[in-house]
Design brief:
12 helices, 332 residues, mainly alpha
C-alpha cells in the first residue's frame, strides 16, 4: 500500500505544478486592472475632450506666435482675441477643429497606452517588483517614450490644424489643406516640425508626468479619504493643472519655433529655407528680440493647465469605469 501511495503522489505532483504557476501569468491585464485596448480608449477620449474644450485658446496662441514680415504689435491675449473676432467672426476660433479631432484621438490613444506600459515596466525594474509607481525618473522616461510615439501620429494633423487656424480662407477645409500641401510642398511638409515637436514635447512630457504623479501622490496623502469617493476627480484635476501649467511654461520657446515651421508661407508668415531649429531661433530673435521666444506663453499656460486638468480627470474617470467593468477594485 505504501508503494501505491508513493506511486500515486509521483503522478499527482506534475499535475499540481502548472496550477501553482498560473497566478504569475496574466497576459490580458497589464496593471491597474485594465487591458491594453482599454488604456487606448481612455486616452483617446481624454485627449479628444481636452483639445476640443480648449481649442479657442489654442487658436489665440497660434495667432500670437506666428511670425509675419511685420511683427504684430498687439500680442496680448485680449488684443489677439479681439482681432480674430473683428476680422473673421467667432467661428474663426474653431477653424481647424476637425483636424484636431482627427489627430487627437488616435495620438492620445498611443500616448497613454505607451505611457502605462512603459511606466509599469520601468517602475517594476526600478522598484524590483510591482510594489508601486513612485519612481519619478520612471514616470519622466515613460512620458518621453509616449510622446515620441504619439507625435509621429499627431504632427501631420497638428500642422493642418495650425494652417487652418491661420488660413483666413486660404484653405477650404481639412482635406483641401492636405491635398494642397501634398501637391505643392510634398509629404515632408507634414513632418517639417516633427523634430522640434519631439524636442519640445520630450521635456514637456517628462516635467508633466513627473509633476502629475508627484502631485497626485502628495494630494492623496493629504486627503486620503477623498481618493476613492466621488470627489477623487479633484485630486486628478488639481495635479493635472499644476503639471500642465509648469510644463507649458518651460517649453514655450520651442513651441514658438514649432508654430513658425508649421505656419510658414501662410498669410504672410516667413518661409524658412531649412527646417533647422537654430535658423528659426535666429530669425525670431532678429525680428522680435529674445522676447519673441516667449510669445504666447500666457495663453499656452492658460491652455495647458485646464486642458491637463480636463484630460487627467477624464482619463482617470474612464479608467475607473473600465475597472468597475472588469470587476477590479483598484483605483489609479
Amino acid at each position: 500500500m505504501a508503494t501505491d501511495a508513493t506511486t500515486a503522489s509521483k503522478f499527482q505532483e506534475p499535475d499540481l505544478r502548472p496550477v501553482s504557476q498560473s497566478p504569475e501569468f496574466k497576459p490580458e491585464i497589464p496593471h491597474d486592472g485594465l487591458r491594453f485596448w482599454q488604456f487606448m480608449i481612455a486616452g483617446s477620449i481624454a485627449g479628444s475632450v481636452e483639445h476640443m474644450a480648449m481649442f479657442p485658446v489654442d487658436t489665440i496662441k497660434t495667432h500670437m506666435q506666428a511670425l509675419r514680415p511685420c511683427p504684430l504689435k498687439p500680442v496680448g491675449i485680449r488684443q489677439a482675441f479681439r482681432s480674430i473676432i473683428q476680422k473673421e467672426g467667432p467661428s474663426a476660433l474653431y477653424r481647424g477643429i476637425w483636424a484636431m479631432g482627427l489627430g487627437a484621438g488616435p495620438a492620445h490613444a498611443v500616448y497613454f497606452s505607451f505611457y502605462e506600459v512603459s511606466k509599469k515596466f520601468l517602475s517594476s525594474s526600478a522598484d524590483g517588483g510591482d510594489s508601486g509607481y513612485s519612481n519619478s525618473a520612471a514616470h519622466a522616461v515613460s512620458g518621453v517614450f509616449a510622446t515620441v510615439s504619439s507625435d509621429a501620429v499627431f504632427t501631420p494633423m497638428d500642422m493642418v490644424k495650425q494652417r487652418l487656424q491661420m488660413g483666413e480662407g486660404t484653405y477650404g477645409g481639412v482635406w483641401d489643406c492636405v491635398k494642397r500641401v501634398m501637391r505643392e510642398e510634398g509629404f515632408g511638409a507634414f513632418y517639417a516640425s516633427y523634430r522640434t515637436t519631439v524636442l519640445m514635447n520630450a521635456p514637456f512630457t517628462a516635467v508633466h508626468f513627473a509633476t502629475y504623479e508627484a502631485a497626485k501622490k502628495a494630494l492623496m496623502e493629504v486627503s486620503p479619504e477623498r481618493v476613492g469617493d466621488e470627489e477623487g476627480w479633484l485630486v486628478h484635476a488639481t495635479a493635472g493643472a499644476a503639471a500642465g501649467g509648469l510644463a507649458a511654461a518651460v517649453t514655450t520657446p520651442l513651441d514658438v519655433v514649432k508654430t513658425q515651421l508649421q505656419c510658414q508661407g501662410v498669410c504672410g508668415c516667413d518661409r524658412f529655407t531649412s527646417g533647422s531649429i537654430s535658423d528659426v531661433l535666429k530669425t525670431i530673435v532678429k525680428k522680435d528680440g529674445y522676447g519673441g521666444l516667449l510669445r504666447g506663453w500666457l495663453p499656452r499656460m492658460l491652455f495647458h493647465a485646464p486642458a491637463a486638468a480636463i484630460c487627467w480627470s477624464t482619463y482617470e474617470g474612464v479608467k475607473s469605469f473600465f475597472q468597475d467593468f472588469n470587476g477590479d477594485p483598484n483605483t489609479a
